[in-house]
Amino acid sequence: MSELPTITHVSDRIAVGELAPPTSSRSVTDTVNGSHRFVISGYSLAKGMGVGKHIASDTFTVGGHQWAIYFYPDGKNPEDNSAYVSVFIALASEGTDVRALFELTLIDQSGKGKHKVHSHFDRSLESGPYTLKYRGSMWGYKRFFRRALLETSDYLKDDCLKINCTVGVVRSTIECSNLHTIQVPDQDMGAHFGMLLENMEASDVIFNVAGEMFHAHKLVLAARSPVFHTEFLCGHEGDAQEIVVNDMEPEVFKAMLHFIYKDALVEEELEATRTSTTPCISDTLTAKLLSAADRYDLTRLRRLCESHLCKDISINSVAQILALADRYHAAELKSVCLSFSAENLSAVMQSDGFEYLKENCPALQSELLKTVAGCEDDSSSGGGKSKSVWAQLSDGGDTNGRRIRQRT
Predict the structure, then answer these.
(1) 100 and 130 in contact (C-beta within 8 Å)?
(2) Where is this region: Disordered (predicted)?
C-alpha cells in the first residue's frame, strides 16, 4: 500500500501596520454679499420710452460676477399696459448656473423709513436660491409697483427714485481637518527686551538715580518715550554716557524701566504698596509711577497707573487722588474722581483730603462745582430732588438719606 501524502496546513498571517489617523472634512455653504444703490433722476422724462425698454445701472461686482439693475418705467410686460413699473437684477457677466439671493428696496424718501422691500434673505425658500443660467438672466418683478401710486408716494421725491439692491452669491467650500499642526509660541518680545535690560548687553547709557546705577539703551528708550527721543536723538544728551536723574527714587525708576522694556508693570510690587499701611496715596509706588509717566510722556504707563488708582477711590482718598490726577494730567482718572465726589459731596467735604484741596487746589473746587451742577441738572430733568446738593450742605448733612455710592 502506498503512503498517503502528508498535508501540512500553514496559517497565513497578515501583518497589520499602524492605522492612519482619521480625517474629516466639512462642506460649508454661505453667501458672498454686496450692495448697490441705483438713483434714477428725471423719472418723468423716462416715462414713455416704451414697454420692455429699461434704464440700466452701472455694473457692480459681487461674488466674482458682475450685476446690473434694470428699471422699466413703462413696465416689462406688454399685457399690463404700462400700469406698473418693473425692476430686475441681471447677471451682467459670463456665468453658468449662478445661484444667488436677492433683495430689492425702494427707498422711502420722507424719512419715515417705510421702504418697500422684496427680499430672499432671512426667510426660508422652498426651492432654494434663484439660479441664473447664463449672462443676461434676470430676477425681479414685472409688477414691482403700480405706477399711479408710485407717482403720488413718498418714494418719488424731486422727480427722483432710489433703489437699493443686495445680491448674495451662494458658494460652497470644503474645510478639511489638519493632520499636522504647528504650535505657535506666545508673544515673547517683552521677555527678550527684558533680558536685554537685565544682562546690560550693549548698553550705551547709565542713569544715576540717588547713587544707584541703571544701564539702558538709548534707542529702546527713544522708541518708547517722546521725551527720551528728543533728548537722545535730537538734543544735547545724544553723546552722554551717564545721566543723573533728580527727584525720583531708584525703585520708581527701576519699575519705569521694567515697563519700558517689557510693556508691563510689576504687579506684586504695586499691590504690596497698595495694601501697606502707607497713609498717603501720593507715597505709593503707583502714584510715583504716575509722576514718572507724566515726566517722560509714557501714555500707556499713565493709563495703567490710572486704572490701579481708580480701584482705591473712596470717600477718604478721592481728594488726594483727584489732586494727583490733575497734577499729572491723568484725564480719565480725574473725570472719575470728579463724578464720584459730586455724587458723594457731603461726605467728601467732611474728609481730611478735602481740606487739602481747599488750601492747595482752588481750581479743582471750581471744576467740582461744575460737575455738581451737571449732576443736579440730570437729576432735575428726571423728576428731581426737592433740595439741591448745596442746600443739603448748608444743613450739615445729606438730609435725603442718599446712600454713598463708590464708583470704582
Answers:
(1) yes
(2) 379-408
CA atoms within 13 A on the CB side of 382: 6
* Nine-digit cell string for 41: 433722476
pLDDT per residue as tens digits for the range 68-122: 999 999 999 999 999 999 999 999 999 889 999 999 999 999 988 899 998 888 7
Contacts of residue 273, Cβ cutoff 8 Å, sequence gap at least 6 = 284, 285, 286
Contact 40, 164 (CB under 8 A): no
Q: Which CATH architecture describes the domain 29-173? A: Sandwich (2.60)
**SS3 at position 32:** strand
Note the pTM of the prediction, 2 decimals. Answer: 0.51
Report the candidate in 55, 53, 51 with the shortest Cα–Cα distance to residue 79: 51
How far is the C-alpha of 280 from the C-alpha of 261, rounded, in Å? Answer: 29
Cα distance between residue 372 and residue 366, in whole Å: 10
Higher pLDDT, 171 or 274: 171
Bridge partner residues of 140 (DSSP): 88
Domain 313-408 class, CATH top level: mainly alpha
Domain locations along the chain: 29-173, 188-300, 313-408
Report the alpha-carbon distance of residue 407 to residue 321 in Å, rounded.
13
Cell matching residue 294: 507724566
HSE-up of residue 81 (Cα within 13 Å, Cβ side): 1
